[in-house]
């Protein structure tokens, strides 16, 4: 009997209502509101939960709307029936004078012939585009090689290279006589050396500098720090080049160009291209 009254009390209290936070008690034990409160609009509680639940939405038809004690009752999903149809052949009559002669529907041979030609035509167009792209690429490579043979294109106001690392190889940028020249020729050409100092000595967070070049040449970090501390009296780049020529006298300009390429400093490689203006000295 006690269990029956407890269940009856639970149903009476909770149908259409929900439990308030902390059952209406505050932190000091006092009651500031009722134990339950009515469900809000578009919510319900049929006694199976302590809190109200959102009403369901019907996709097609609503038989009974939602209220605070029961959810929405939706109608059955309508079933569409397909009516079988029968296709009948149609014959058209063309008027040609006094006599009527039956004519058949147009043939599909034209559509079939076009479909047969579509695939070979697409393949032919693709081959032409690939051949044209290869021709343009080869033409650009020839122009890059021709640039190395024309010293008139290299001057102080023209930089043929960008800062990107995706350009041509150093063998296509610099001529063979420059690549095979000893590294000492860079130190001997004061104009080229001064331009390299201006490009590489300043420290930058965006572009690699003489510090990175010295690191690639296996100089210790203490030596690099000391060299930069003395940059007011001597260029760090000049000190690096002098140290490399002492340790590796067989190094050429090609070795330096490859390191600059690895550092993505094509502007410095463009400065090395100016060594060709003094070919007799190289």
Overview of the structural elements:
This protein is mostly helical. Among the domains are: 1-74, Tumor Necrosis Factor Receptor, subunit A, domain 2, CATH 2.10.50; 176-273, Death Domain, Fas (Orthogonal Bundle), CATH 1.10.533. The chain contains eleven helices and eight strands. 16% of the residues are buried. One of its GO terms (cellular component) is plasma membrane.
Q: What is the highest CATH level, the class of the domain at 176-273? A: Mainly Alpha
CATH architecture of the domain at 176-273: Orthogonal Bundle
Q: Helicity level, as a percent range? A: 40-55%
Structural class: mainly alpha
Strand fraction equals: 5-15%
Report Rg.
44 Å
């Amino acid at each position: 009997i006690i269990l029956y009254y407890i269940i009856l009390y639970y149903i009476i209290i909770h149908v259409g209502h929900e439990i308030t936070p902390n059952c209406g008690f505050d932190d000091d034990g006092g009651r500031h509101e009722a134990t339950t409160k009515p469900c809000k609009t578009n919510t319900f509680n049929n006694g199976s939960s302590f809190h109200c639940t959102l009403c369901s939405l019907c996709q097609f038809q609503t038989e009974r709307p939602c209220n605070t004690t029961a959810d929405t009752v939706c109608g059955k999903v309508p079933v569409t029936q397909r009516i079988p149809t029968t296709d009948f052949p149609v014959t058209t009559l063309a008027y040609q004078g006094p006599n009527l002669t039956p004519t058949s529907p147009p043939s599909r041979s034209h559509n079939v012939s076009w479909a047969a030609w579509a695939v070979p035509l697409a393949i032919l167009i693709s081959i032409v585009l690939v051949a044209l792209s290869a021709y343009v690429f080869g033409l650009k490579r020839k122009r890059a090689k021709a640039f190395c043979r024309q010293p008139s294109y290299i001057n102080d106001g023209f930089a043929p290279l960008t800062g990107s690392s995706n350009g041509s190889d150093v063998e296509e940028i610099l001529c063979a006589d420059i690549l095979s020249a000893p590294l000492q020729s860079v130190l001997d050409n004061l104009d080229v050396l001064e331009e390299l100092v201006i490009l590489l000595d300043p420290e930058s967070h965006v572009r690699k500098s003489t510090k990175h070049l010295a690191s690639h040449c296996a100089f210790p970090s203490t030596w690099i720090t000391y060299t930069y501390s003395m940059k007011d009296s001597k260029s760090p780049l000049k000190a690096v080049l002098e140290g490399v020529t002492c340790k590796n006298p067989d190094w050429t300009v090609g070795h330096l160009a490859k390191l600059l390429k690895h550092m993505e400093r094509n502007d410095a490689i463009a400065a090395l291209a100016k060594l060709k203006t003094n070919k007799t000295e190289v």
